């Protein structure tokens, strides 16, 4: 979450709200400090559990196993593509929800969160019923264009995007609703069309919010398991992402599963940390 | 500023709530009541291989009917996942595995009470959509370039058996997916996403409304033994033993054989 705070911090000067001097902060109330510490502990302890059980001696040997790098590469690639797909579709949808009054908006807003509530495995079955070989759209896609999505890398991207898009939409919509609309109104007064206002005023204004949403979205896509294994299946090099490899390793070899989890964790944290530095230094 | 902060905060709280609601659902077994009466009572928690879902559900009901006051709860999953859970301290009373290897993982860790008993055997068939639209008669039909086949991953018993059968037949097969358990492989056939899957005869029989099971000779070389054992840390050992006895009794056997299992 610190990422998001930083992203938010970067916007503050732009919005032009005077910040309070830090020296006025005073003592941290115990009523906040204790639950905060417990919360942190709760989040970090499972990670400690993983580290304690990591077989450090065999780690290098595990790392060089060919299947590991393939699964890692596939995970990074599909999660990134899924995030791009979510950005292309999710940002406009978030804008619509935040800026346009239309009948049934509350319902649409609730529908957007459905993939969050749906168990991912159920999401995978639902995707099969729509995009599968005999699905509502899948049958037509197959007959007209010869496109089949299940058991393909595209299927992985689709499953990840389905599960991860709500995270992006909620973050971007929150940023849009929190942003000062006077800039957009000023642009409109000066004769800018709604599209120009969106591209030249709204997007730069909420860029940190979009970045934060994209990070959440990417992270969720990277860890996606249920919808992926149900919709896209599991085949090394094609649809076996890291979480799937971890699950199957767990079937026979707990230590291998721990190593795989750790690799996924280290790589994703490294990527997120390097991105964060870029955001902080950028205006 | 304050409004903005509140909106963001509300957003994250909503996210947190949603995320929390996504986890959980972990069934915790009630410990046995430790009743001193000679009869059995309390709850028996049985960890059983996914392929035992239908027959053990029936056996569980029979057992409850024969022993009023006893409740049987099942956790059906891939045998390997169950073995891992047991070795990590899951509060189970009985473990029924679809392969000796997973049972060995549990007994080697010292978590079995006594020696496991092989109670049934199972064999693979080719599951195809009802009516066998592609006219599959044997393993070689599955190697056609446009045939989409689901196998179990080698890490789970049905996948290990499939590999053994394919090796025995010298058939090289490229599946489109390696599923995490036998039911997942079967559901890909049911949904029409694959043309065939190698599953246990019992699973094909349980899904007879949607699939046909095609027998093939090479499966004789890959018969799976199913062992069952009372667990060392069973919260309700008396009832656990009674359940195992019931599975091994004639009543239990007849349920299992009518589901398509073979006697050991």
TrEMBL record, chain A:
It is found in: Cell membrane. PROSITE patterns: ABC_TM1. The keyword Transcription regulation does not apply. Its main location: membrane. The chain crosses the membrane at residues 30-52, 72-98, 110-131, 151-176, 197-221, 256-275. Gene3D superfamilies: MetI-like (1.10.3720.10). Pfam families: BPD_transp_1 (PF00528). CDD domains: TM_PBP2. Keywords: Cell membrane, Membrane, Molybdenum, Transmembrane, Transmembrane helix, Transport. It is a multi-pass membrane protein. The keyword Membrane applies. Residues 72-273 form the ABC transmembrane type-1 domain. InterPro entries: MetI-like, MetI-like_sf, ModB_ABC, NifC_ABC_porter. Part of the binding-protein-dependent transport system for molybdenum; probably responsible for the translocation of the substrate across the membrane. Belongs to the binding-protein-dependent transport system permease family. CysTW subfamily. This is Molybdenum transport system permease.
């Amino acid at each position: 979450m610190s990422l998001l705070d930083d992203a938010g911090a970067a916007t503050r000067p732009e919005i032009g709200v005077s910040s309070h001097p830090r020296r006025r902060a005073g003592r941290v109330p115990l009523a906040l400090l204790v639950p905060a510490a417990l919360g942190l502990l709760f989040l970090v302890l499972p990670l400690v559990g993983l580290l304690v059980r990591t077989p450090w001696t065999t780690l290098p040997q595990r790392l060089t196993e060919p299947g590991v790098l393939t699964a890692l590469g596939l995970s990074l690639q599909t999660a990134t593509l899924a995030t791009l797909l979510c950005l292309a579709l999710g940002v406009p949808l978030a804008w619509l929800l935040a800026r346009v009054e239309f009948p049934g908006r509350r319902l649409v807003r609730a529908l957007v969160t459905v993939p969050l509530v749906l168990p991912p495995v159920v999401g995978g079955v639902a995707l099969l019923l729509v995009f599968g070989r005999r699905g509502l759209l899948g049958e037509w896609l197959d007959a007209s264009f010869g496109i089949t999505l299940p058991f393909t890398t595209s299927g992985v991207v689709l499953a990840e995007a389905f599960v991860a898009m709500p995270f992006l939409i909620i973050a971007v919509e929150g940023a849009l609703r929190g942003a000062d609309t006077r800039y957009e109104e000023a642009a409109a007064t000066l004769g800018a069309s709604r599209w120009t206002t969106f591209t030249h005023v709204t997007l730069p204004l909420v860029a940190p919010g979009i970045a934060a949403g994209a990070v959440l979205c990417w992270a969720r896509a990277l860890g996606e398991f249920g919808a992926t294994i149900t919709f896209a299946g599991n085949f090394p090099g094609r649809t076996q992402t890291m979480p799937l490899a971890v699950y199957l390793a767990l079937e026979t070899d707990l230590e291998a599963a721990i190593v795989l989890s750790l690799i996924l964790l280290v790589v994703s944290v490294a990527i997120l940390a390097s991105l964060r530095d870029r955001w902080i230094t950028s205006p | 500023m304050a409004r903005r902060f509140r909106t963001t905060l509300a957003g994250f709280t909503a996210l947190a709530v949603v995320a929390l609601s996504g986890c959980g659902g972990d069934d915790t077994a009630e410990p046995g009541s430790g009743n001193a009466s000679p009869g059995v009572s309390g709850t028996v928690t049985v960890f059983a291989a996914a392929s035992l879902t239908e027959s053990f559900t029936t056996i569980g009901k029979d057992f409850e009917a024969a022993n009023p006051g006893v409740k049987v709860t099942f956790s059906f999953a891939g045998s390997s996942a169950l073995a891992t859970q047991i070795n990590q301290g899951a509060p189970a009373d009985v473990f029924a595995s679809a392969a000796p290897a997973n049972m060995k993982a549990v007994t080697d860790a010292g978590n079995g009470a006594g020696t496991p008993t092989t109670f049934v055997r199972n064999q693979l068939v080719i599951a195809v959509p009802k009516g066998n639209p592609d006219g599959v008669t044997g393993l070689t039909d599955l190697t056609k370039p446009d045939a989409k086949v689901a196998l179990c991953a080698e890490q789970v018993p049905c996948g290990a058996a499939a590999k053994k059968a394919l090796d025995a037949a010298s058939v090289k097969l490229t599946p489109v997916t390696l599923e995490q358990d036998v039911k997942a492989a079967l559901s890909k056939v049911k949904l029409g996403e694959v043309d065939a899957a190698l599953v246990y005869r019992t699973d094909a029989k349980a899904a007879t409304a949607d699939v046909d099971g095609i027998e093939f000779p090479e499966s004789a070389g890959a018969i799976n033994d199913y062992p069952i054992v009372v667990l060392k840390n069973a919260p309700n050992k008396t009832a656990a033993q009674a359940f195992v006895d019931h599975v091994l009794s004639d009543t239990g056997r007849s349920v299992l054989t009518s589901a398509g299992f073979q006697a050991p």
